[in-house]
Design goal:
By secondary structure, this protein is α/β, with parallel strands linked by helices. The chain contains ten helices and 13 strands. The strands form three sheets. It has a five-stranded mixed beta sheet with strand order 5-1-6-13-7. A five-stranded mixed beta sheet has the order 10-9-11-8-12. The longest helix has 24 residues. It is elongated and about 60 Å long. The termini are far apart.
Length: 264
């Protein structure tokens, strides 16, 4: 056998072994979790109400509760792995976490590098205001003043539905928008749920509540590429929790609205 043919055969054998071992590694996460009775889930700690550090210095929030629910359903211990928006996907890719539950939206760019489960919670932009003001439809915005951040998604969506006579007051950043509402410059505020939750925690006396949905952008759980068995397991847990009303309960607890009809 000449050298060239031996090289080709060796290369082919190497590729075959790489595929075999690569496939085994790609499907190893669920097996490791079940063997070790431990799942590592990445969560946020600086993004209320999804994940933040409470007065007891322990992580809490919707994403933290969802992580606990998955661990409970799988019958394993939970290790919470704090992450930021910048490192949550690298942590998953480098196997520092088995799952990422961290207000993760799905888009084509992210789908190239990680896989996603079904959606587990809403993330949304909405109109918020005091309990003393009734807003049940866009028509109820007429004649009311609303603070919003210029050019933000909520600005775009509010502009689409606000009727004539709505006093939309645009500010340059979220801090200015929130300050305008908190100081009484406007009756209502249009913003993302995380900004609103932080505002409501800091200003309970305003008795602010969710009023009107502007845009839904669901959250998904991130799974490493190729971990199909783990993804299927988590999807089954999500479907069961959805049918049992547990996802609605989590959303109601942290977002003050049900999870609704989330995409699968």
């Amino acid at each position: 056998m000449n050298t060239s043919k031996r090289h080709l055969l060796a290369t082919a054998a190497g590729l075959t072994l790489a595929c075999v071992f690569g496939s085994a590694h790609a499907q190893s996460a669920l097996q490791a979790i079940e063997k070790n009775k431990l799942i590592r889930i990445a969560i946020p700690t600086d993004f209320p109400p999804y994940g933040f550090v409470g007065v007891d210095l322990k992580p809490q929030g919707l994403d933290v509760d969802m992580a606990a629910l998955i661990a409970q359903k799988m019958g394993v211990r939970l290790e919470l792995v704090p992450v930021t928006s910048a490192n949550r996907i690298p942590y998953l890719q480098s196997r520092k976490a088995d799952l990422v539950i961290s207000t993760l939206g799905k888009n084509p760019e992210r789908e190239k590098v990680i896989d996603f489960t079904a959606a587990y919670s809403p993330f949304f932009q909405a109109v918020f205001g005091p309990t003393s003001i009734t807003v049940k439809s866009p028509a109820d915005l007429a004649g009311k003043s609303i603070a919003v951040t210029r050019g933000a998604i909520e600005d775009q969506e509010l502009t689409k539905v606000a009727p004539a006579g709505t006093d939309i007051r645009r500010f340059e950043d979220n801090n200015a928008t929130v300050s305008a509402y908190v100081s009484g410059q406007t009756q209502l505020v249009a913003t993302g749920v995380s900004v609103a939750e932080n505002m409501m925690q800091r200003n309970p006396g305003l008795r602010t509540e969710y009023k009107l949905l502007l845009k839904d952008s669901p959250n998904y759980i991130g799974v490493a590429k190729g971990e199909d068995a783990l993804r299927a397991k988590v999807n089954a847990i999500i479907a069961e929790a959805k049918a049992a009303g547990e996802l609605d309960q989590l959303a109601q607890k942290w977002l003050k609205r049900p999870a609704g009809n989330l995409p699968e």
